Write a sequence for this structure.
């Protein structure tokens, strides 16, 4: 006997996309840390410059990721949900994630939600940021996936409204949150 596994997307009411999300840069000037003044000042200064540069690159990368996700949203907005669909004529949640990561980031992800749940690094809900995959349990055997556009919203294919952006804090999603994975 073969047992079937249902993987699909949940139903949510349409919400509007508010202007949103900022990415903070925690540089020493903002945190109140004083520059190092030891005998190894040149080394410490170089390390601080490198660290600040790395933070700036991370912020820049997150901003670029958000810009790419917003372009994907504009390109796919309103595309209807179709189970197993893989085009702008109709798409399901896991395939939308697969297509966006492939087309906008050059990253090949699996095409089904259960396999996507195993890629990248596990992230706590409080640590979700732009580009993270967010997963929900929308039924006993049904999972749903989307991509965080910032710490409070995610892009996904809704069964009732097609491709849209929803709030992670909305009670429907908050109560069904399963996991988050960082791929970018």
């Amino acid at each position: 006997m073969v047992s079937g596994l249902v993987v699909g997307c949940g139903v949510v009411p349409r919400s509007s996309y508010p202007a949103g999300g900022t990415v903070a840069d925690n540089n020493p000037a903002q945190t109140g840390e004083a520059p190092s003044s030891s005998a190894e000042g040149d080394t410490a200064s170089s390390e601080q410059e490198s660290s600040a540069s790395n933070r700036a690159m991370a912020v820049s990368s997150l901003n670029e990721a958000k810009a790419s996700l917003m372009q994907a949203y504009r390109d796919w907005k309103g595309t209807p949900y179709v189970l197993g669909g893989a085009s702008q004529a109709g798409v399901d949640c896991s395939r939308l994630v697969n297509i966006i990561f492939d087309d906008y980031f050059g990253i090949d992800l699996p095409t089904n939600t259960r396999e996507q749940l195993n890629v990248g690094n596990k992230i706590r809900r409080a640590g979700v940021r732009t580009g993270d995959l967010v997963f929900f349990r929308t039924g006993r055997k049904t999972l749903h996936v989307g991509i965080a556009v910032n710490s409070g919203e995610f892009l996904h294919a809704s069964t009732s409204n097609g491709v849209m952006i929803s709030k992670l804090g909305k009670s429907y999603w908050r109560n069904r949150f399963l996991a988050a994975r960082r791929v970018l």
